[in-house]
Fold this protein.
Amino acid sequence: MSDAVPTPVSAPATGAVAPQITDAEREELRRHGVLITYFEELYNWGRSNSIWPLQFGLACCAIEMIAAATARFDIARFGAEIFRPSPRQADLMIVSGTVTKKMAPQVVRLWNQMPEPKYCIAMGACAISGGPFKQGYNVLKGVDRFIPVDIYIPGCPPRPEALLNGLIELQKKIRGEHLTGPDGARFTRPEIPSEFPIPECGEHDLVPPKNNALWTPPPSAPRKA
Amino acid sequence: MESLEQIRDRLRAYFPAAQVLIVTNPGVAAEHSLLVDAAHGRDIALFLRDDSALALDYCSNATGVDWPDKEITDSVKTAVPDPAGGAPKIIEQKTTRLQPGCLEAVYHLYSMKLRHGPVILRLRTANRSDQTTLPSLTPIWRSCDFQEREIYDLYGIIFEGHPDLRRLLMWEGFKDHPMRKDYVDPDDYEWEPTAHAQVLERAKAHFPAAPKPEVPKP
Amino acid sequence: MIGNGSAPAPFASFPGPTVRSVNDPFHGDLLEVSMGPQHPSTHGVFRMVVTLDGELIIKLKPVFGYLHRNHEKIAENTTYLGSMPYTDRLDYLCSMSTNWAYALAVEKLAGQAVPERAQYVRVILAEMTRLVNHSCLVGFLFNDLGTSFTPLLYAFREREKFLDLFEALSGSRMMCNYQRFGGCRVDPSSEWLEAARQIVENYPRFLDEYETMLTGNEIMLARTQGIGRLGLAQAINAGITGPVLRASGGSYDVRKVDGYGFYPRFDFRVPLGEHGDTYDRYMLRILEMRESVKILQQAFRDIPAGPIMDPKAKLRGFRPKAGEAYGRIEGPKGELGFYLISDGSPNPYRYRVRPPTLINLTLLEEMCLGHTIADAVVILGSIDIVLGEVDR
């Protein structure tokens, strides 16, 4: 094996193709100091292990997010301890806490300012659906009404371990992303918008109250008088 | 600290034109309050702050309360003599009138210097629709600054003399006053009964209907 | 800046920048900057619109409401007990003492008595909350000063020990929902009390370690002494309470004035500051933590056996008589009060939270005028705000 020229392996277009080299052979090569991988795998591995979240704490869940960054739970071992204050430098927006209608335009604006590839975690019941404050007139019933959410972490507040679990799920999702082809990741396809329209604070409610392209109400939730 | 009756009598002596009444608190806490008419509100507040025996220099809390309009049905029974000579017929006439509710601002006053309190001050507007002005007590106690802005935002009471009366919690273009009892929140269509609503319904069903809340009379 | 997708009306186009130049002939070019609502140093979604002359602050207007979650309106449609979990989420760092404030107000409204053991447990939990809150506040203050997380890591290390205790007792780290009208939900076991006592015994050592790092630090002294002075008369008139008032010399602690709970039984002092600047506010919190440890030691020594909940407390169908009550405690941030109006039904007619942090922010502009933006961040940090309580 040592004097055979390793065949160049390119990322398969559709993802599911029988590899030309078996895992055992790859392991053998690795022991000799030769690494053979897909470019996609390498790229995704680098990306998933160095996610930089945006420093964006809204409410109580933000305290658990800070606790996840402290020494006991240590988000640093997942590569995510650098919380960037500026959205231009962040990959991940952890929406931790209730999004109110007054705050919603700013959340969408921050999302628009983040460069691709970017991900969103809705942490806590309030970010998922309004949570315990669902009856509130000023509460946005879920941040996924205006921006696309990748991972939902339920809890009120979710424990820091739950946030780390969510982060691990996001890492798995990133590692499974494809860079080319019709089922490639969101940022590789130009027809999927990466910036979303910012709602305005109207006279009685947000205008519009939700982004219809992103989110439609589930049919089984009728409004009762 | 002197009793509420003594404070009322002193206020009536100093401000003979003002209407100062005591609103008794029927509950166990027995925190009775002083109802003062809006025109003399600020003068009385200044007196309460600067008086040496009371020295109420600390306004702890300013709250808004909404007492909605009440429909009152009057029935008048008239006896109409029967032209045929029999027993007179009794005709009942029912008229409904709307007793206007009011918006109220309640202030809890304490004294940091003399360590006593609370003295509770109440100011009421004339009605809920067009006469919703009250004197602002911010020039006297700066702590009412944000609290009166919040009452304006959520209830709609306009405080005359407030240095900066803008909305505090809702955004500038918002038109409604959400804490009023007749506020209808926007149709987010996704409101569904939460566990709280069910618990409340069950609690209410256990007891006979409570009487409709009334503005506490002095 | 709408992306490749379509952007139909009526969506807003990209608004103008948040930095504007204001031409004032006297001052030259003034700059209006919006600090927040997303900012690494504003302790939550809080916005300050600051007008600057170079780096000096000419005008400062705070903007609230970004976390207004309609707590008071929801409480009008919820039973009294159903609002208890919402009080956890008001000041989310101090849920045990906020619970106690609400339970106190309702007990005052309904005339409910509380057994002795429950009072001691409440004092223990409230003082532990004060320790947690003050150490985290010092950590966040130093975060604002630029130490980039290190003191906060120490504070959170201690906080985790207390959170483990809270979780063992009430089931949740932060949102404890533990107090009830007439006592507490669960009786702490003797093992829990012993474990808590051990942690409190070790706390002064942590405080010494903390102070060695922080108190004599030259940079901290240079950046906090003389910054953000608050005069006493101004503070009393503005309704400032808590450590901010006491740092200015105002001796008003609701624990001593009202004597709620069993505080009159405990021997503790109330530290007072002299200058009312940021350094005094920091030092006062350190001293208050030491006094809290003293209270805790006495409480652990004296706690009696007995019921944890008043046997005559009405657990189901709780319906206080019509009337009103205002109950207040000395929370870690100031005087936290609840004003309740009952009309005889299971849910309150009017439910009002008196937020200490909102009222402490009344004088933010006066404290920051003439200082630089960096100082404004530090001053805000020393006032100790939590947006859940400011906006409710």
Summary: Chain A touches chain C through 50 residues (CB under 8 Å). Chain A has six helices and five strands. The radius of gyration of chain A is 21 Å.
